Here is the input.
Amino acid sequence: MTLRPPAGLMRRALRRGLLGGHRGWQVGLVILVVIRLVGRVAKTGRPPVVHSERLRVGERLEIVHLGGREGSETASPPTGEGSA
Here is the structure.
């Protein structure tokens, strides 16, 4: 589902509402702008894939966050396999 009004309708509402002063088209323009803003805020659709890579058999993916929490001075070192 897309929340984007047709461009021709938006142009017509701009021309007849703002430039022509027709109250009905002004209300329509406000509604169209609100629909467009809601669509941008809701970000309908899937986000683009930034990075993709296949893992071979035996490989693994480890995601580590090294930043500390607010208020702590240093982050704790990672533990587990491979750490000394």
